[in-house]
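During the no-cost extension, the postdoctoral fellow (Dr. R.K.) reprocessed legacy sequence entries with the updated structure-token encoder. One reprocessed record is reproduced below for audit purposes.
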Amino acid sequence: MKVTPFYAVLLLILAVAAGSLGAFATNRWLAQEDTSRGMHDFVHKELRLTSAQEVRLGALERNFAIEHRKLELALRSANAGLAEAMSEEQRYGPKVAAEIDEVHARMGDLQKATVRHVFDMRALLDPAQQKAFDREVSKALTSDPKS
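Re-encoded structure tokens follow.
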């Protein structure tokens, strides 16, 4: 196949689009990790956990880290599928649309697992700790990540 200027420009546009999507996704993941780190620090430093709570929380965190990594890898795989479909179809066609749905499904799986983990952590807390935790979760979900 001869690479015409049209195809060269089209490939450049696709590469920029895929790169932009990757940068956007990376920024979202990093913001989520910053929020997770902030919540982690808050729970361990501000809530004055008992040693029993620390042990139970440690087990929850180890299990969630494994699940989170697995879900991140599934999301990366879905992004790779999207990149392949974009390269193959070179337009917003049925394969691209299906791969976008797959990316969204994997993002949803990651978000659902994170929310389940938040509720699992909350269940370890006493009522006073839960109130403080709930305020911090609400703040993390509603604050501007850029500020």
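The radius of gyration is 20 Å. The mean pLDDT is 83. The remaining legacy entries will be reprocessed before the final report is submitted.
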